[in-house]
Design a protein that fits this description.
nine-stranded mixed β-sheet, 1 helix, about 45% strand, mainly beta, Immunoglobulin-like
Length: about 130
């Protein structure tokens, strides 16, 4: 076991249609002994990146709570991150993301850019593997 916060599997999903937000998906492994929270995600791809905390009452931009010694997935069925008015994105490239926390130091990762169709294929392949 480690003592820190890791961000893995970062993906930016291109908007499906012009004017739609892009989505940011990733996993946070909180190896610390105290709870933490994601307060923001920043990137040069947009100045308007919003937390969508669907685990809170309704959909809010409150920090996304991380329990001690736990793994939290930010994905389409739980809390996630929306990117409004993103710079042009190209599937197959990477973009930098910095995840900011209430207690832990910010973590910067490279996120792979994918289309919604690519993400559907990945999900189908994963479901077939189970």
């Amino acid at each position: 076991m480690f003592d820190g916060v890791r961000v893995t599997g970062a993906v930016v999903v291109e908007p499906v249609a012009a004017g739609d937000p892009a989505s940011i998906l990733f996993t946070v492994d909180d190896g610390t002994a105290t709870s933490d929270g994601i307060t923001a995600v920043t990137s040069p791809i947009s100045s308007e990146i919003v937390l969508n905390n669907t685990l809170a009452a309704g959909s809010t931009t409150d920090p996304i709570t991380l329990s001690p010694h736990s793994v939290t997935q930010l994905n389409a069925v739980g809390p996630d991150v929306w990117v409004f008015d993103p710079a042009p994105l190209k599937a197959g490239t990477t973009v930098p993301l910095t995840v900011h926390f209430q207690r832990a130091a910010p973590v910067t990762v490279k996120a792979h850019v994918r289309t919604a169709a690519q993400m559907a294929q990945i999900a189908a392949a994963s479901a077939n593997a189970d």
